[in-house]
Design goal:
The protein is mainly α. The protein has 2 domains: 123 residues, Voltage-gated potassium channels. Chain C (Four Helix Bundle (Hemerythrin (Met), subunit A)); 94 residues, Orthogonal Bundle (Helix Hairpins). Helix 2 packs antiparallel against helix 3. The longest helix is centred in the C-terminal third of the chain and has 32 residues. The two termini are 14 Å apart. The relative contact order is 0.13.
C-alpha cells in the first residue's frame, strides 16, 4: 500500500508551509522568499559596482550574509519537511537551492566566489507556483521533450555546419592568407563561424574578389542555417499535442511537483497526495 501523509504531524504542517502554494501560509512563505531572492540578486549586482562608499560595501556584505543564513535555514527546513530528504536534494529545485547558498560559504575559502550567487535568480522560478502558473511549467517540460527528441537531427545538422566551417575556413586561409588577416586555420574558421551565423564583427574581412565571392555565399547560406533548427523543434512541438492539466500539489515524501490535477498519489514514490 502507498504511504499516506501524516496529516496531523509536524512534518506535514511544515511541508504545507514551505512547499505548498495553495494555502495562505504557504503562499505568504513563497512571496516572502521570492522578495528575499530578488533582494539577494540586487545585492550581488551592487557589490560589483565600483565607486560606492566603503560603508555601503560593508552594509551590502552584511545583507548578503543575513540572506545566506536565512536561505540555509530554509534549505534545512525543506529537507526536514519531506520523508525522503535525498529525493528533494537531488531534484531540480533541491540542487538550485543548495547551489544558491554555497557561494557565500565558499567565499570564506575562495575570495570572489560570492559573485556566483547570481544563480539565485533561478529560484525565482517558484513564482510560477505562487501565481498559479504551474501549467506553464508543463509547457516548459514539453519544450524540453521536443528539444531532446530533436537532438539527433540537430546533431547531424551541426555536424554538417562544422564541415562547412572547416572547408570554408581552409579555403579562405589559402585564398586570403596572413596578409589579409587570415593568419591561421583556426582564425579562418573563426571568421567562417562569425560570417555563417550572420554576426559579422568585421574584425577580419576578405580583400580578394574570390574571397569576397565565397564570403557572399557563406552569408546567404547563413540565413538558411538559422531556420533549420527552428523547423526541427517546431515539428516536434506540433507532434507533442496539448499538455495535461497539472496542480500545485507537492509530494510530502519526495517533494516532487507537477502532478496531474486529479492525481491522488505521487507518480515517483507512490505516496498519497
Amino acid at each position: 500500500m502507498p504511504e499516506q501523509p501524516d496529516g496531523f504531524g509536524w512534518r506535514h504542517r511544515l511541508h504545507t508551509v514551505v512547499f505548498e502554494a495553495d494555502t495562505p501560509a504557504g503562499r505568504a512563505f513563497d512571496i516572502v522568499l521570492i522578495v528575499l531572492i530578488a533582494l539577494s540578486v540586487v545585492i550581488v549586482a551592487l557589490e560589483t559596482v565600483p565607486g560606492l562608499a566603503t560603508g555601503t560595501y560593508a552594509l551590502l556584505r552584511y545583507g548578503e550574509w543575513a540572506l545566506t543564513i536565512a536561505f540555509s535555514v530554509e534549505y534545512v527546513l525543506r529537507l526536514l519537511a519531506v520523508r525522503r530528504p535525498t529525493a528533494y536534494a537531488g531534484s531540480f529545485f533541491g540542487i538550485v537551492d543548495l547551489v544558491a547558498i554555497l557561494p557565500t560559504w565558499l567565499s570564506l575559502l575562495v575570495p570572489g566566489a560570492s559573485v556566483l550567487m547570481v544563480v539565485r535568480v533561478l529560484r525565482l522560478l517558484r513564482i510560477f507556483r505562487v501565481l498559479k502558473l504551474v501549467r506553464y511549467l508543463e509547457e516548459a517540460r514539453l519544450l524540453g521533450d521536443a528539444l531532446r527528441q530533436s537532438g539527433r537531427k540537430i546533431g547531424v545538422f551541426l555536424l554538417a555546419v562544422v564541415t562547412v566551417v572547416v572547408i570554408t575556413g581552409a579555403a579562405m586561409y589559402v585564398i586570403e592568407g596572413p596578409a589579409h588577416g587570415f593568419t591561421s586555420l583556426p582564425v579562418s574558421m573563426y571568421w567562417a563561424i562569425v560570417t555563417l551565423t550572420t554576426v559579422g564583427y568585421g574584425d577580419i574581412a576578405p580583400q580578394t574578389p574570390l574571397g569576397q565571392a565565397i564570403a557572399s555565399l557563406v552569408m546567404v547560406l547563413g540565413y538558411g542555417i538559422i531556420a533549420v533548427p527552428t523547423g526541427i523543434v517546431t515539428a516536434e512541438l506540433t507532434r507533442g499535442g496539448q499538455p495535461p492539466a497539472v496542480s500545485t500539489q507537492s509530494c510530502a515524501t519526495c517533494a516532487l511537483e507537477g502532478h496531474a490535477a486529479d492525481a491522488r498519489f505521487c507518480r515517483r514514490c507512490g505516496a498519497g497526495l
